């Protein structure tokens, strides 16, 4: 884990809701794995005080790529940054997805900004493994297709793809994959993860969930990001023990 002053190489709008930002950050780029995240300080001052966590979206040689939506004050400031500005970035943080092991189909399920960690994951999954991406969003403007493979889409308002949630679509399609050795990787809002957790427990599916919660330190000091263990033995910290958990290990 290092702190790096990273120069912004580009910042662009992906849609009405999402921005893509590329920063020159060779130390973190060398180390970071899919599913890990960085904590970004969005100003040089003490306001806002806390860093904001962002998943690694992609790595291109010495560059880190993040995708973000404007949620509150911190991300609003981030969206106003320009090429050449510097960001203070702490990373890599968290555990990352487990991509090792035997499976012949990776199913990536992303809801809204939860699709952010999948471009780098797609790049890092072995070329022997087929990939199917299920991408959902509230409207077509909330779908992130950037660098994704073999895409199935769903929108809550029916403006693109299947009319319904991405989990509804996944449930309908699951029968087509059940004879394969699948591994599911998911990231998105808690209700989406909860629904997927239930399906994967019922059907005994190999499933990893990337959990989102409000964070302060991002590396296990403040104890501010607990999630209950499913075995009744206390709590994990999402920032340090996660953000990725096997679906059977946690209680939402
Ligand atoms: C592991 C992880 C990875 C993430 N990856 C991305 C990503 O790739 N792209 C993206 O757009 N967003 C991502 N988020 C959510 C992002 O961190 C929040 O949207 C952001 O912190 C909001 O900051 P703000 O100042 O704009 O909002 P405010 O609401 O003003 O933030 C106030 C405080 O609450 C915390 N907070 C508020 N909402 C969230 C939230 N949903 N998750 C975590 N902390 C929150 C902030 O860190 C801050 O401390 C991720 C969150 C986590 C935990
Ligand atoms: S954010 Fe501080 S312990 Fe997790």
Structure description:
This protein has 252 residues and is an alpha/beta fold. It is 18% helix and 36% strand. The protein has 6 helices and 17 strands. It has helices at residues 26-31, 73-79, 118-124, 166-173, 190-202, 238-241; strands at 2-13, 18-24, 37-41, 52-55, 58-60, 63-69, 86-93, 105-111, 130-137, 151-155, 162-163, 182-187, 207-210, 226-229, 235-237, 244-246, 250-251. The strands form 3 sheets. Strands 4-3-7-1-2-6-5 form a 7-stranded antiparallel beta sheet. Strands 11-10-9-8-12-13-16 form a 7-stranded mixed beta sheet, with helices on one face. Strand 5 (58-60) and strand 6 form a beta hairpin. The longest helix is centred in the last third of the chain and has 13 residues, at 190-202. It starts with a strand and ends with a strand. The model has no long low-confidence stretch (mean pLDDT 97). Bound molecules: flavin-adenine dinucleotide and FE2/S2 (inorganic) cluster.
Q: TL;DR?
A:
It contains 6 helices and 17 strands. With 252 residues, the chain is of the alpha/beta class.
Computed structural class: alpha/beta
Give me the strand/helix succession: EEHEEEEHEEHEEEHEHEEEHEE
User: Overall pLDDT, averaged?
Assistant: 97
Note the main sheet: 7 strands, antiparallel
Taking strands numbered 1, 2, ... along the chain, how are they ordered across the largest sheet?
4-3-7-1-2-6-5
Radius of gyration: 18 Å
Specify the number of helices: 6
Any low-confidence stretches, pLDDT <50, length ≥5? none
Helix content: 10-25%
């Amino acid at each position: 884990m290092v702190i790096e002053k990273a120069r912004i190489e580009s910042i662009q709008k992906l849609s009405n809701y999402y921005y893509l930002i590329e920063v020159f950050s060779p130390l973190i780029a060398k180390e970071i794995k899919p599913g890990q995240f960085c904590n970004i300080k969005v100003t040089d001052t003490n306001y806002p005080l806390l860093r904001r966590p962002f998943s690694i979206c992609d790595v291109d040689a010495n560059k880190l790529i993040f995708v973000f939506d404007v949620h509150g004050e911190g991300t609003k400031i981030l969206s106003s940054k320009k090429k050449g500005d510097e960001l203070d970035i702490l990373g890599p943080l968290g555990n990352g997805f487990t991509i090792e092991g035997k499976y012949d189909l990776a199913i990536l399920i992303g809801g809204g900004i939860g699709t952010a960690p999948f471009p780098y994951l797609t790049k890092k999954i072995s070329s022997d493994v087929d990939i199917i991406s299920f991408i959902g969003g509230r409207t077509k403007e909330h779908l992130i297709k950037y660098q994704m493979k073999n895409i199935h889409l769903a929108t809550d308002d029916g403006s693109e793809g299947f009319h319904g949630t991405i989990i509804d679509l996944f449930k309908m399609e699951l029968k087509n994959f059940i004879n394969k050795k699948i591994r599911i990787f998911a990231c998105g809002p808690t209700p989406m993860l909860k629904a997927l957790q239930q399906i994967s427990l019922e059907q005994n599916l190999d499933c990893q969930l990337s959990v989102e919660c409000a964070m302060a330190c991002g590396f296990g000091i403040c104890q501010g990001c607990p999630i209950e263990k499913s075995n009744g033995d206390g709590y994990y910290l999402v920032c340090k023990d996660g953000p990725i958990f096997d679906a059977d290990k946690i209680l939402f």
